[in-house]
Design goal:
Layout: E1 2-10, E2 21-30, E3 33-42, H1 51-57, H2 61-64, H3 70-81, E4 85-88, H4 91-105, E5 118-121, H5 122-129, H6 137-144, H7 156-172, H8 209-225
Parallel strand pairs: 1-4, 4-5
Antiparallel strand pairs: 1-2, 2-3
């Protein structure tokens, strides 16, 4: 399966009030492995940044004024995500902004859903896995042991890279798949070269006592790392 981890930065919080996309960042996963292919563009929003957005992104109108307009990169962006499953944190926000940008270009561009096979919202996934806890990207990085010490400002590509690590860790339980790890011979990170087998390939059989003990120790370790809440660690 081809997945694209996507994030955007915007001039403000509401596309309904005329706010615009100022950065798109995407990283590609193929069969859950980072391919090191990415898409990143800064965009001229044709308006000023709102103060709050400027503060968290560090982006200014002076920096953005000579960047391409959305219509100049739209086809390249759509070609990059086409046929993939999008993985987005708080997907309604990003998809809403991108659909608003596409609508400005005309009906022939369609909507994001017309170009992808689906959208997975990691915010909803986090709420299922860690009920009652914080679900921001920073909180998930801390909970799952993903290094985000270099994230002093929000940036679409940086946040997409962090979200890729968070998503792979949150859905595999196998530790970090760092996009910054040493590359293997095929260009993917060595950390990403070991991936869980599909569940359908696991043969069902009786559990040996020593396996049950090892499982209990593993669950305790995951629970400690996850702040004490592991849904799959309790008995049905």
């Amino acid at each position: 399966m081809r997945q694209v981890i996507l994030d955007t930065e915007t001039t403000g919080l509401s596309w309904e009030k005329g706010n615009r996309v100022v950065e798109i960042g995407c990283v590609e996963l193929l069969e859950r492995r980072p391919t090191r292919r990415h898409f990143q563009r800064y965009l001229n929003p044709e308006r000023e940044m709102e103060p709050g957005a400027a503060e968290v992104t560090g982006l200014t109108w002076d920096f953005l004024r000579d960047k391409p307009l959305f219509h100049e990169v739209a086809q390249e962006f759509l070609d990059f995500i086409r046929g993939s499953e999008l993985v987005i944190h708080n997907a309604a926000f990003d998809v809403g902004f991108l659909n608003a940008e596409l609508a400005r270009l005309g009906p022939e561009y369609g909507r994001i859903d017309d170009h992808v096979i689906g959208v997975l919202d990691t915010l909803a996934l986090s709420k299922q896995r860690f009920p009652g806890q914080r679900h921001s990207l920073d909180a998930l990085c801390k909970r799952l042991g993903v290094d985000n010490g270099h994230r002093t400002l929000h940036g679409a590509l940086l946040d997409a890279e962090l979200l890729a690590d968070v998503y792979l860790t949150m859905t595999s339980g196998q530790g970090e798949f760092s996009l910054g790890a040493e590359a293997g011979e095929n260009g993917t990170s060595r950390a990403a070269e070991t991936v869980l087998r599909p569940l359908a390939a696991v043969v069902r059989r009786g559990i040996l006592p020593e396996e049950a003990e090892a499982h209990a120790q593993r669950m305790a370790g995951i629970a400690k790392k996850a702040g004490g809440t592991v849904l799959w660690g309790s008995e049905a």
